[in-house]
Here is the input.
Amino acid sequence: MDDLRQRLRKLPCGRRLLDAAAGMGGVHLVGGAVRDLLLGRVPPELDVVVEGDVGELAKRLGAAAPAVAHERFGTATVRDGDCRWDLAAARAETYARPGTLPEVSPVAIEQDLRRRDVTVNALALDLGSGELREAPHALEDLAAGRLRVLHDASFVDDPTRLWRIARYAARLGFALEEHTARLARDAVRTGALEAVSGARIGNELRLALTEPDPVGALEAAVALALAPWLAPDRALAQRALELLPAGEGRRDLLVLAASLATPADELLADLQFTAAERAIVRACRETPALDGAPASRLPSELARELRGRPPEAVALAGARDAGAAGAVGAAVARRWLEELRHVGLQITGDDLRAAGIAEGPDLGRRLQAVLDLRLDGAVGADREAQLAAALALEPGAETT
Here is the structure.
């Protein structure tokens, strides 16, 4: 499989891995990285299994002190610039109880492959010899676009594999092998996921939301009955993502908010989403649709409705107008996100105090009134014009 090593060497991080592993022996590229190379894809991550101690390879890759994720598992993550390598000692896993973390023991690479989730990930490329090792059915399943677990207790031992298989189905466009599909249904029906902590399920959900097609990953999870609290709406999510300004907001949380079947603040807390993350999702859920908001509404009126709401919430509110003829809600959301929310004043409370306005609520009301006038085009960007407008207002005056 020299061609696989040649494909790996074309990747900057792959070339560094091959150079670091030279002469070591027992170093293997494994899992999805090998699968992707065989499919002609660029692997998003490089997972490496070492038959022995990962420390030597970590040092060769330039890690003075590698970040050990789980010392009991013999794993380390090495980062350098844009490169990241996830290293693990070859191991077997046994489960004391379904849903718990496994006990591990060192083994040869052939045995290590048996602990993988699906056959198309049970692949190992020896970086020294170029030999490709595979679990039974791995290459034929890869050619057929098929997802097959390696043994019948796979979903019982680790029910989070149900979420992983949903992600693979969406990412690769593969179908579940018939027996695997039956095992998945049986595991869900008998409550296998109930043995898994909320934190671990939350981690799987987060990974699904970072997939190239996150809605597809959620749809696959729903198809496997993993999340009855989800009802993904691809069209809604896509419209909302198109409205979210580039480089702003949390696209993952926007997709999640667009896909929730019911308010889920307590659920998300159980899944270990932070308070800040839940606040964004809650705002997305609570911001009313903008389809009833005429595009001709005064900017100051729109500001009073949308000011302070996260951009994800405004994007989703605008996306809820699915009308084919003139998507008013999308136009309103886009105007706010791209233009109106950036309008500000050249004056501050200090300027008003210096001009003789006493400290107190009236000072803030004057600033807000001038900002409304500025939004509506009645006052320009000139500082002196804004100050004159603020001073001309009656005490307690507000625009309407």
Q: What stands out?
A: The two ends are 73 Å apart (CA to CA). The CA atoms of residues 218 and 232 lie 7 Å apart. Residues 361-375 form the longest helix (15 residues).
